[in-house]
């Protein structure tokens, strides 16, 4: 009886492993293509726009998050890394949400046709300070994830 229950768990594990690998390969291909196109354009001398910088960072963050969850599926069976992998995945997911929000804000400023001083100031400020905002958002995500360690 005990052997059949263990065998059922292995079948379930393999049943979850195959879709996880398929999602990993699909995600790696798609996000690597996005990163590759942007990086090759930058190497050719095209200027880096804030939107290109954010889209490239989103691709990197999503590759890292997907790799972390796939490693958890692979190694979680053999090594007790649940808490560490959860924290790493939480960091990448939080950073992904924050950077996506920044991208939405930049697109909102781009498509708005309001000519008030506030919107004109925000357009200029965002375009020059995108790098700093990205660093701040990544640090904020790291601090947010470090709170998990404080709570435990």
TrEMBL record:
Keywords: G-protein coupled receptor, Membrane, Receptor, Sensory transduction, Taste, Transducer, Transmembrane, Transmembrane helix. It comes from the Eukaryota. One of its GO terms (molecular function) is bitter taste receptor activity. It is a multi-pass membrane protein. Signal peptide: none annotated. The keyword Transmembrane applies. It is found in: Membrane. One of its GO terms (cellular component) is membrane. The chain crosses the membrane at residues 12-39, 51-71, 83-109, 130-151. Belongs to the G-protein coupled receptor T2R family. This is Taste receptor type 2 member 40.
């Amino acid at each position: 009886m005990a052997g059949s229950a263990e065998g059922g768990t292995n079948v379930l594990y393999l049943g979850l492993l195959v879709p996880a690998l398929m999602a990993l390969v699909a995600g790696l291909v798609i996000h690597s293509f996005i990163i590759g196109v942007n990086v090759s354009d930058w190497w050719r001398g095209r200027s880096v726009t804030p939107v290109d910088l954010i889209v490239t960072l989103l691709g990197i963050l999503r590759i890292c998050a997907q790799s972390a969850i796939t490693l958890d599926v692979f190694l979680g069976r053999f090594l007790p890394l649940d808490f560490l992998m959860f924290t790493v995945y939480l960091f990448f997911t939080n950073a992904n949400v924050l950077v996506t929000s920044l991208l939405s804000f930049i697109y909102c400023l781009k498509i708005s046709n309001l000519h008030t001083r506030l919107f004109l100031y925000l357009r200029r400020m965002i375009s020059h300070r995108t790098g700093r905002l990205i660093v701040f958002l990544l640090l904020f995500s790291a601090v947010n994830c470090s709170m998990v360690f404080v709570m435990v």
